[in-house]
Specification:
The chain is mainly α and 178 residues long. The chain has one domain. Helix 3 packs parallel to helix 5 and helix 6 packs across helix 7. The longest helix has 42 residues. The radius of gyration is 22 Å and the shape is elongated.
Length: 178
């Protein structure tokens, strides 16, 4: 059994079947979204996973966001797919704006290079402090917003399918009266 060979059925298309026969799986955003929708995680677990990923995406730990998301999602028992998907908001297209916003917020919080510091390394460390502090604050805000949105969407999907839990204080329509 090869590690590179997928252990699931081949894709439905002839090209996909040929690729799957060679051990190659194509990435598809639609398949990822279908997985997230069909995942058996609760809306709270999915929302918490997405919130975790959104938080980590704004920290200055580029290159390890994905690994941090996987480890922390496993430790916290939240949805790892949602955490991984949310870390991708710090992609090369949005990263410069997210970094500048984090450094600005960190500067407003009182972090950053001290005035008149001639040493470039000390200035760089000051900017890193501002990025870290601002990233944590923005990460909490962005993570909560994305987590609430993802959990709400998951709850709507479950309700449309008729599989959502009843609201507290509501009678279960399928319960039999004694």
């Amino acid at each position: 059994m090869s590690i590179l060979r997928p252990q699931h059925p081949p894709l439905e298309t002839p090209q996909g079947a040929a690729l799957a026969g060679r051990g190659v799986r194509r990435f598809s955003l639609q398949r990822l979204l279908d997985f997230l929708v069909s995942e058996r995680s609760s809306p709270l677990q999915i929302g918490a996973g997405v919130a975790l990923g959104g938080f980590l995406a704004l920290t200055p730990f580029y290159g390890v966001h994905v690994w941090l998301a996987l480890v922390l999602a496993g430790l916290l028992r939240v949805n790892p797919a949602g955490a991984l998907l949310a870390t991708q908001i710090s992609n090369p297209l949005f990263a410069p704006a997210l970094i500048v916003a984090s450094v600005k917020v960190g500067g407003w919080m009182g972090f950053g290079p001290a005035a008149g510091v001639p040493n470039a390394a000390a200035k760089g460390f000051g900017y890193f402090q501002a990025w870290l502090a601002g990233g944590v604050l923005l990460g909490v805000v962005v993570g909560l917003a994305l987590g609430i949105l993802a959990g709400g969407v998951r709850l709507l999907v479950l309700r449309r399918r008729g599989a959502a839990p009843a609201r507290p204080g509501q009678a279960d329509p399928q319960a039999v009266a004694p």
